[in-house]
């Protein structure tokens, strides 16, 4: 099979051009950034009084407003907001004592939310320690930023997913999709049932789990030097069998995949999606059992044993690493040593 011969999502999946252009159109190239832009629209920044300095509920120090960009404000370094964990943009607040940043929109998020995804109880805006991550029930990605939670049900939504619209347009289907909940639906992307949240077209019996609807259009990954493209069935001229390069299991051609045309490599979406893409790293911590400062990182530079539990380093999960010696701690061990 040549790279040019692989095709997915042919004409029957083309979106009806009469669909409201103001709908959130998925998938997007940078899913997280586009979702942030959508959620920020819900916060009317024009009506917000921009205080030069303030104390926010999420931070112990005074935050200073940066309203207009100058050449000296931000260099080439990518700075992430501690609220939505997306690249910082003006206007934003910054702590003068530590590496803490908040968009103006994140400063003004409502403290409580009644959400259709979890309509049983109101959800409260929260933030935990910078190294404590929570799994979002919508996008199924971990975050250490702001989230809305129902303490009664232990239900979590990151702030981007908390402001998703009730209707979307998606390239995989020609009609608008509206939010569905409360009964079991079969997802057309992965063939799994979902009972809490998703999007669907009732006329066509076409349903997507929330997490599948939010898959980005392209993904970059160390397993392939080219962007991996989200592709939908039917696939033309595909072989009788093709396999996921990561898990090595056979791929069902009736469901969505990520594919590289150049290298002719395919992946299950859930194998290639980064479950820790919505985590801000870089925070530091001192504990009594180690003389040096520990840094919150994605993985250790060198594989070594965790302190106390003896487990080997896991490159997929956040850990703490000493910047001066080959010493790492898993989050479980950090919690028991604080």
UniProtKB/TrEMBL annotation:
Question: What Pfam family does this protein match (any one)?
Answer: C1_2
Q: Which SUPFAM superfamilies match?
A: Cysteine-rich domain (SSF57889)
Extract the InterPro entries matched here. Answer: C1-like_sf, DC1, Vacuole_Formation_Reg
Residue ranges of the TM segments: none
Tell me which residues make up the DC1 domain. Answer: 58-107, 118-162, 224-272, 288-334
PANTHER family registered for this protein in UniProt:
CYSTEINE/HISTIDINE-RICH C1 DOMAIN FAMILY PROTEIN, PHORBOL-ESTER_DAG-TYPE DOMAIN-CONTAINING PROTEIN
Q: What is this protein called?
A: DC1 domain-containing protein
UniProt keywords, alphabetically: Repeat
């Amino acid at each position: 099979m040549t790279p040019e011969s692989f095709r997915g999502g042919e004409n029957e999946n083309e979106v009806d051009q009469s669909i409201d252009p103001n709908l959130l159109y998925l998938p997007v190239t940078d899913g997280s950034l586009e979702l942030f832009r959508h959620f920020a629209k819900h916060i009317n920044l024009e009506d917000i009084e921009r205080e030069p300095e303030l104390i926010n509920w999420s931070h112990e120090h005074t935050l200073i407003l940066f309203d207009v960009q100058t050449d000296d404000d931000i260099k080439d370094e990518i700075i992430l907001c501690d609220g939505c964990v997306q690249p910082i943009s003006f206007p934003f607040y910054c702590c003068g004592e530590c590496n803490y940043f908040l968009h103006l929109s994140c400063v003004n998020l409502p403290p409580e939310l009644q959400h259709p995804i979890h309509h049983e109880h109101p959800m409260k805006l929260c933030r935990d320690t910078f190294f404590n991550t929570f799994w979002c029930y919508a996008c199924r990605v971990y975050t250490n930023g702001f989230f809305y939670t129902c303490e009664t049900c232990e239900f979590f939504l990151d702030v981007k997913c908390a402001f998703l619209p009730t209707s979307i347009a998606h390239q995989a289907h020609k009609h608008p999709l509206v939010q569905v909940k409360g009964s079991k639906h079969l997802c057309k992307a992965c063939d799994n049932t979902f009972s809490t949240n998703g999007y669907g077209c009732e006329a066509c019996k076409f349903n997507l789990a929330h997490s599948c609807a939010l898959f980005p259009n392209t993904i970059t990954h160390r397993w392939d030097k080219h962007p991996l493209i989200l592709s939908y069935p039917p696939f033309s001229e595909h072989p009788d069998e093709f396999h996921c390069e990561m898990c090595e299991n056979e791929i069902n051609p009736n469901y969505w995949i990520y594919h590289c045309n150049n290298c002719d490599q395919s992946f299950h979406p859930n194998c290639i999606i980064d479950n820790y893409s919505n985590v801000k790293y870089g925070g530091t911590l001192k504990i009594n059992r180690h003389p040096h400062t520990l840094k919150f990182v994605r993985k250790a530079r060198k594989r070594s044993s965790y302190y106390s539990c003896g487990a080997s380093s896991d490159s997929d999960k956040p850990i703490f690493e000493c910047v001066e010696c080959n010493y790492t701690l898993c989050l479980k061990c950090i919690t028991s040593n604080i």
